Fold this sequence. Notes:
Layout: H1 2-9, H2 15-34, H3 90-103, E1 108-111, E2 122-125, E3 131-137, H4 147-154, E4 165-170, H5 176-184, E5 187-190, H6 192-199, H7 207-224
Helix pairs in contact: 4-5
Amino acid sequence: MFVKTAAVAxxxxxxxxxxxxxxxxxxxxxxxWSVAPGRRRPRVHGAGWRGLPAGAPxxxxxxxxxxxxxxxxxxxxxxxxxxxHSAVDADGFEHAVAALCARxxxxxxxxxxxxxxxxxxxxxxxxxxxxxxxxxxxxxxxNRVGSQDLQRFGGTCFAVHEADVAVVVTTSAxxxxxxxxxxxxxxxxxxxxxxxxxxxxxxxxxWEGAAVVHAEAGADGAAGR
Length: 225
């Protein structure tokens, strides 16, 4: 506009109005650029924010569809020599049996013994996916596992704990009625001698023989259908 006016008037180009217009246009452009939307940087919180210590990295939620992997159980190591099971208490015996399961290929092992355990002291999952429920009886040599012990365990191992293989492990022995009941209910009994052989790796783990029976039973059931 200023250039056309100056050309018509035949005078020189008005410098000051042009400079003023250029400065005004530059100011408007700068203002629009400064308020343009943008992504804010994440806020870094110091100590005390939701319990995070100072200097801790900000919380990052897990990706969708990715399941958290549980930490492996802190089980004691079992060497090639036989453990002195009589030297531990009942709780230590449960952990020793759990360690044997982990040593012999069970990827998931959990010690669940305690008040209200309903007979299950150790629950393990074999590499083939069988659920093994174990009751541990840390008894002295003269105290044998009786039929009542087996009956209580037999009432929960399959119906409550959904065992594929139910095992009773003891440092002593089983009475004859207990062994008969176990055989009738497909409960594997591991006495002190068998436990020593298992610990020394002289025999396979107690669920291997039962796994064969379980597989045959499943095949028979499928054939019957």
